[in-house]
Amino acid sequence: MVSLNPVRILKNEADEEKAEVARLSSFVGAMAIGDLVKSTLGPKGMDKILWGMGRNEGIVEVTNDGATILRSVGVDNPAAKVLVEMSRVQDDEVGDGTTSVTVLASELIREAERLIDMRIHPQTIIAGYRKATAIARKALEDVAMDHSQDEAKFREDLMNIARTTLSSKILSQHKDFFANLAVTAVLRLKGSGNLDAIQIIKIQGGHLTDSFLDEGFLLNKKPGMHQPRRVENAKILIANTPMDTDKIKVFGSRVKVDNIAKVAEIELAEKEKMKDKVDMICKHDMNVFINRQLIYNYPEQLFADRGVMAIEHADFDGIERLALVTGGEIVSTFGNPELVKIGKCDLIEQVEIGEETLLKFSGVPLGEACSVILRGATEQIIGEADRSLHDALCVLTSTVKEPRTVYGGGCSELVMAEAITREAAKTPGKESHAMESFAAALRQLPSIIAENGGYDSAQLVSELRALHAVDKKTMGLNMYKGEVGDMVELGITESFSVKRQVLIQAAEAAEMILRVDDILKAAPRKREQDRSHC
Known about the structure:
By secondary structure, the protein is α+β, with helices and mostly antiparallel strands. The chain has helices spanning 19-38, 66-72, 78-93, 98-117, 122-143, 151-166, 175-188, 260-282, 297-305, 316-326, 379-401, 411-426, 431-452, 457-469, 487-490, 496-514, and strands at residues 15-18, 48-51, 60-63, 145-146, 198-204, 212-215, 217-219, 230-239, 288-291, 309-311, 330-331, 343-353, 356-362, 370-376, 404-407, 475-478, 483-486, 493-495, 518-521. It contains 16 helices and 19 strands. It is globular. 43% of the residues are buried.
């Protein structure tokens, strides 16, 4: 007699979802992530409170930055993880468009679900999506403008891009002020795009508009006791070395001595060792010593006796940026002074900002280096202002590298969608359905932006479609009045590189999720039980 029991191949704890169940699980995860961040899209988007639990318990962030939200949300669905990773890459690549790329990918998945219900195979949908992506990309390139040859026009483009980026952030009330600040900082980079040369310092207190841009470099540290507070023609030795061995560390040590005098001898030997190290450091051609690690009282006193400004415990980001802007290098050994690159600057002095005392490095060799000091009432406000400004700086640096611009306010999405719709009408077979669905997903972005402002999205998007159909390709959404407007007059401009990245990444992520027809959940590895006590 033949047994009809199914053969089990996977381990007991392993799990498998097949065909439609797997596809549904992936689609639901992707759409849920899109719905999570959808309400933050556009200038009237809402914020989310992120409340840390466990290790981050008590940490509260208020943000509408898609990448920050998704990074903080723990997801268990594999398709949702794909979208979270995609938004992180978008943030790393161009700095903005993290919400747009997630929403577009989830809308493409939503449209694909309808097509699968119509019995269209996922591979046919993918082929249609690929054609649509190529058409959309070409349409975007055709409407892109390049004003990089005209300095005044290009600066105005950068200002408009910064205003558009900041209009959906906490800084929207003061977007002109912060747009000018961001553009000035980026133009100082002279096309290098090295964002490390722009330092953002957050100091609580005051109003957001008390923020300012300062040339040079600021370090949130103070010199040691009885050391110079101001140094002209500074020669800076930047180090990462222990300067805390001038006292014997009794805790955790075992010292066997005949009498207490021997302990004093050991302490004296430690001090002599430290004195030799300070002598080696001072043989370098320098008058300022900045160390990443602690400097104890005895070496601090030795530096003071020699008139050297010594700064301890500078955070690693701080000294890496300091090495970059002063032209020095971080050293850990001091036996070859002739091989060490010493950092230089014209003046180091203490400055007061709010209730903080900082060290200001003026006249640094990397002339484009600057510091942005952000002020604000609470830690949450300053944190969100920092994220907003960072997005603007990233978008501006990518625009300096790729100077083409496109119009925002849903205008570019409509241009791409109309181009796809025209081609879909000429395409035979089922792929045309997929192309039309791609266009519908693109139209969802201006629709969601309008909904987030409390406006009639169906009315506004249908008006936009009618205008774009008669070749008025600069029309988009005026979110301040809740009507259709000309983006040229409103100055709503976005970076071409951001829009292109959103299109390509969302299409690729949707394609990856569409290909899934099986989800295998591996069994957890069991820990080996210690049998020695059995």
